[in-house]
Amino acid sequence: MEKQQALAAFDALGQSTRLDVFRLLIKAGEDGMSAGDISDALDVRQNTMSANLAILTRSGLIRNERHGRSIRYFADMGGMRGLLAFLLEDCCGGQPEHCQPIIERIACAC
After folding, report:
1. Which ranges does the record mark as transmembrane (predicted)?
2. Average pLDDT per 10 consecutive residues for the chain, totaling 110 residues
3. CA 4/CA 7 separation, integer angstroms
4. Which terminal residue of the chain has fewer beta carbons within 10 Å of its beta carbon, N or C?
5. What's the rounded Cα separation, in Å, for the pair 59 and 61?
6. What pTM does this model have?
């Protein structure tokens, strides 16, 4: 991930509702969620949610798929991995064993 992409991701996550959306979609996993379900779960108006989903999509942290007449949203795990890799790129001054606790903490058990 390039620096500008990382900045866009941090900008997207720097707003409370968008951070909540991203975490909710991570929790939803491969089933994803519709925009309406996300709005209901977070008690956010649908037009406000649309704007937030658009920002998160442009940042590369979430993606959407059309399912019939509805659109489902998913956490983009590639985008999240890219952001984490960007953050850990130069981790621990060439001593990767020092990074292992961080990696173990963020590793998914799924």
Report:
1. none
2. 93 97 96 96 95 97 93 95 86 76 72
3. 5
4. C
5. 6
6. 0.86
